């Protein structure tokens, strides 16, 4: 039985002071349940959030990491550095990183290998842009991203993976995929995993939907059979909104 996982992705929002204020408020609202909750924050907020969420069960994730173990990569952060401060998750291959920072399926795959090596659980993002959906190519695009991401990973690693299906046209636009569209693609992603690793593995993978998830549409999306949670951008910035999604 997969435990739903609702993760917030703060992107480049909130100072440490604001992050701690969020955590103090969110902890008052959050009750441990069958739903896992987490926040993926900018690097400078991570240590404070790990401390603030200690003992609550709320997970902390980063939004990116380098694929090398260490080296002369000015401005970068390694998986080992994240692990050392108690970070458990890392978003990898978000469409904004693919679009603005030259992230490719190859770098995503390298990052997944390094993340697992350092006990960081990846939340790997895939999804098509609008032109690809309009051209009916969304399944091919997502399959290519998934096959590229999974290259040479072991069955155990894949079983512990979180995949976020985020159609790029639904991110920050207020335009959500319909529950049926989101469900269909999440089911397809599971099938792609099953074809490579078998159903024992594919049935364990948490597959989230992301793209304009809000308190008023979370229940419908999260109740779809193939959707195991959400990666939430804008609505994760306000504790009162985010808790409604976690409590869908
Ligand atoms: O990582 C989160 C997604 O990019 C979704 O962002 P959004 O909820 O603001 O559309």
Automatic annotation (TrEMBL):
<protein>
    <recommendedName>
        <fullName>Triosephosphate isomerase</fullName>
        <ecNumber>5.3.1.1</ecNumber>
    </recommendedName>
</protein>
<keyword id="KW-0963">Cytoplasm</keyword>
<comment type="pathway">
    <text>Carbohydrate biosynthesis; gluconeogenesis.</text>
</comment>
<dbReference type="GO" id="GO:0019563">
    <property type="term" value="P:glycerol catabolic process"/>
</dbReference>
<keyword id="KW-0413">Isomerase</keyword>
<feature type="active site" description="Electrophile">
    <location>
        <position position="94"/>
    </location>
</feature>
<dbReference type="GO" id="GO:0005829">
    <property type="term" value="C:cytosol"/>
</dbReference>
<dbReference type="InterPro" id="IPR020861">
    <property type="entry name" value="Triosephosphate_isomerase_AS"/>
</dbReference>
<comment type="pathway">
    <text>Carbohydrate degradation; glycolysis; D-glyceraldehyde 3-phosphate from glycerone phosphate: step 1/1.</text>
</comment>
<feature type="binding site">
    <location>
        <begin position="9"/>
        <end position="11"/>
    </location>
    <ligand>
        <name>substrate</name>
    </ligand>
</feature>
<feature type="binding site">
    <location>
        <position position="172"/>
    </location>
    <ligand>
        <name>substrate</name>
    </ligand>
</feature>
<dbReference type="GO" id="GO:0004807">
    <property type="term" value="F:triose-phosphate isomerase activity"/>
</dbReference>
<dbReference type="InterPro" id="IPR035990">
    <property type="entry name" value="TIM_sf"/>
</dbReference>
<dbReference type="GO" id="GO:0046166">
    <property type="term" value="P:glyceraldehyde-3-phosphate biosynthetic process"/>
</dbReference>
<comment type="similarity">
    <text>Belongs to the triosephosphate isomerase family.</text>
</comment>
<dbReference type="GO" id="GO:0006096">
    <property type="term" value="P:glycolytic process"/>
</dbReference>
<dbReference type="GO" id="GO:0006094">
    <property type="term" value="P:gluconeogenesis"/>
</dbReference>
<dbReference type="InterPro" id="IPR013785">
    <property type="entry name" value="Aldolase_TIM"/>
</dbReference>
<comment type="subunit">
    <text>Homodimer.</text>
</comment>
<dbReference type="InterPro" id="IPR000652">
    <property type="entry name" value="Triosephosphate_isomerase"/>
</dbReference>
<keyword id="KW-0312">Gluconeogenesis</keyword>
<feature type="binding site">
    <location>
        <begin position="233"/>
        <end position="234"/>
    </location>
    <ligand>
        <name>substrate</name>
    </ligand>
</feature>
<dbReference type="InterPro" id="IPR022896">
    <property type="entry name" value="TrioseP_Isoase_bac/euk"/>
</dbReference>
<feature type="active site" description="Proton acceptor">
    <location>
        <position position="166"/>
    </location>
</feature>
<dbReference type="Pfam" id="PF00121">
    <property type="entry name" value="TIM"/>
</dbReference>
<comment type="function">
    <text>Involved in the gluconeogenesis. Catalyzes stereospecifically the conversion of dihydroxyacetone phosphate (DHAP) to D-glyceraldehyde-3-phosphate (G3P).</text>
</comment>
<feature type="binding site">
    <location>
        <position position="212"/>
    </location>
    <ligand>
        <name>substrate</name>
    </ligand>
</feature>
<keyword id="KW-0324">Glycolysis</keyword>
